[in-house]
């Protein structure tokens, strides 16, 4: 391909044409590292042919954009768009953006600052875009992994029948004269360059005022004082990096906040029996997208900290979370002797620098918040020196680089020996799950 490109440039020069490229990329885009089977990769375009691309063509819809292919570095190549207004790449068959995949990846490059938009179109919904990126690093490849949920939330309802890849569009955006791109694919796995949306760093309003009757609530933190605190909370000094403090939010309001969170233990002055309640509620806020974990610790049969599944905090707004207390009893935790609230934790989770929290309470009755976290029943459990697989299906273990490490047919409870590290485990036709062996 590189020789063909050089030959065409020579022909254009001899024919009186000027080269349209000021500076091609000096290096190729990063080579994709996900395993096509373990990570369910569906590729629209990748120059290295690491994955098989779907068949596509450029429809003539009145765009002024011109597409070509360019060399990139000494041995690479990529696609290039000149004079971008909008660019459609139509797929010959509907492209499923939901089943088995969670992210869309793209690498792009320009020689000047530029806006960059990428999205998809279905015949039912029209074109829907991921958030616009502001590219400010000319001469460098920019890699990003967009959560597919972003484009679903933006209005792509017919996400199983995406038929056109869209780049550019929108009269209010300013694009570079040349934009190079490579490695456009959907996948499931651990994103290496996760898109992080941003909102105000500090909440502009207080957390929602609780409305559950006081008689049904046992409260641990409530800045509005709608509920009295059941016990005093003190920060346990267990060597954590986390700083716990309180800050003004909104008009005449306040909330607790955590800075440099790795983990935090809030000790109750008196042991609490929360076994008669149905849910735990809390409101959490962050200016950027971040994971977050909530747990309990006690000394009545369950001395270790026990967590519910981690959540993802949507940035720029209060997230109201309700978790069934059965999430803990099903893990063997005794709710009758709860002594500590655990925030953060998890060796593989990286939290935002500042996270605000309010309205921590347990209550009786039906779910009150926006997001209900259901208990998770897993077929894979970690143990010292490996994993335990409780299934009668095929089991495949992959490294985070997508390399197949072990494959077997399980028969009931099977132990698979593994060294310390992070793995992706795929059981039968289920999605691969991430496990950490300590």
Summarize the structure.
The chain is mainly β and 438 residues long.
Q: What is the strand content?
A: 35-45%
Task: Count up the helices.
Answer: 3
Kindly provide the name of the CATH class of the largest domain. Mainly Beta
Number of domains: 3
What is the rounded Rg?
26 Å
CATH topology of the largest domain: Jelly Rolls
What does this structure look like?
The strands form eight sheets. Strands 14, 16, 17, 19, 24, 26 and 27 form a seven-stranded mixed beta sheet that branches. Strands 1, 3, 4, 6, 11 and 13 form a six-stranded antiparallel beta sheet that branches. Strands 2-5-12-8-9 form a five-stranded antiparallel beta sheet, with no helix packed on it. The longest helix has 13 residues, at 2-14. 35% of the residues are buried. Residues 1-21 and 372-377 have low confidence and may be disordered. The protein is built from three helices and 34 strands. Helices cover 5% and strands 44% of the residues. It has three domains: 2-187, Jelly Rolls, CATH 2.60.120.430; 214-372, Sandwich (Jelly Rolls); 380-437, no CATH class. A hairpin with a 3-residue loop joins β8 (118-122) and β9. It is mainly β and 438 residues long. It starts with a helix and ends with a strand. The protein is globular.
Topology record:
Blueprint: H1 2-14, E1 42-45, E2 56-57, E3 66-72, E4 76-82, E5 86-95, E6 103-110, E7 114-116, E8 118-122, E9 126-129, E10 133-135, E11 142-147, H2 148-153, E12 162-168, E13 178-187, E14 217-221, E15 233-235, E16 243-249, E17 253-259, E18 263-272, E19 279-285, E20 290-292, E21 294-298, E22 306-307, E23 311-313, E24 319-324, H3 326-329, E25 338-344, E26 354-363, E27 371-372, E28 380-383, E29 386-391, E30 394-399, E31 404-409, E32 412-417, E33 421-427, E34 433-437
Parallel strand pairs: 24-27
Antiparallel strand pairs: 1-13, 2-5, 3-4, 4-13, 5-12, 6-11, 6-13, 7-10, 8-9, 8-12, 14-26, 15-18, 16-17, 17-26, 18-25, 19-24, 19-26, 20-23, 21-22, 21-25, 28-29, 29-32, 30-31, 30-33, 33-34
């Amino acid at each position: 391909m590189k020789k063909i490109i050089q030959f065409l440039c020579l022909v254009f020069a001899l024919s009186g044409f000027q080269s349209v490229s000021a500076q091609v990329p000096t290096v190729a885009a990063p080579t994709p590292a996900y395993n096509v089977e373990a990570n369910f990769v569906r590729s629209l375009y990748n120059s290295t042919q690491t994955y098989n691309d779907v068949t596509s063509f450029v429809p003539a819809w009145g765009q002024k954009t011109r597409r070509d292919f360019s060399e990139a570095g000494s041995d690479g190549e990529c696609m290039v768009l000149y004079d971008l207004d909008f660019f459609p790449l139509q797929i010959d068959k509907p492209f499923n953006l939901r089943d088995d995949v969670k992210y869309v990846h793209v690498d792009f490059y320009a020689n000047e600052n530029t806006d960059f938009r990428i999205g998809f179109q279905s015949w039912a919904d029209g074109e829907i875009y991921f958030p616009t990126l502001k590219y400010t690093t000319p001469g460098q490849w920019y890699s990003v992994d967009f959560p597919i949920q972003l484009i679903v939330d933006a209005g792509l309802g017919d996400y199983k029948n995406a038929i056109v890849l869209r780049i550019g569009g929108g009269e209010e955006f300013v694009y570079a004269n040349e934009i190079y791109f490579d490695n456009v694919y959907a996948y499931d796995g651990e994103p290496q360059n996760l898109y992080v949306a941003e909102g105000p760093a500090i909440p502009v309003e207080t957390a929602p005022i609780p409305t559950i009757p006081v008689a049904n609530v046992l409260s641990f933190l409530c800045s509005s004082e709608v509920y009295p605190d059941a016990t005093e909370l003190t920060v346990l000094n267990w060597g954590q990096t986390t700083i716990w403090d309180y800050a003004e939010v909104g008009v005449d309001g306040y909330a607790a906040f955590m800075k440099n969170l790795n983990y935090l233990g809030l000790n109750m002055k008196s042991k609490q029996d929360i076994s008669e309640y149905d849910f735990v509620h809390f409101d959490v806020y962050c200016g950027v997208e971040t994971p977050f974990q909530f747990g309990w610790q006690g000394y009545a049969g369950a001395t270790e900290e026990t967590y519910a599944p981690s959540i993802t905090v949507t940035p720029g707004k209060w997230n109201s979370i309700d978790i069934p207390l059965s999430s803990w009893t099903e893990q063997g935790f005794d709710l009758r002797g709860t002594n500590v609230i655990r925030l953060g934790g998890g060796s593989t989770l990286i939290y935002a620098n500042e996270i605000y929290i309010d309205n921590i309470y347990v209550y009786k009755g039906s779910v009150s918040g926006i997001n209900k976290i259901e208990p998770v029943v897993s077929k894979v459990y970690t143990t010292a020196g490996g994993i335990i697989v409780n299934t009668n299906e095929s089991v495949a273990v992959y490294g985070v680089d997508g390399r197949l490490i072990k494959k077997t047919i399980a028969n009931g409870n099977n132990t698979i020996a593994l060294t310390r590290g992070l793995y992706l485990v795929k059981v039968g036709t289920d999605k691969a799950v991430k496990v950490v062996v300590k």
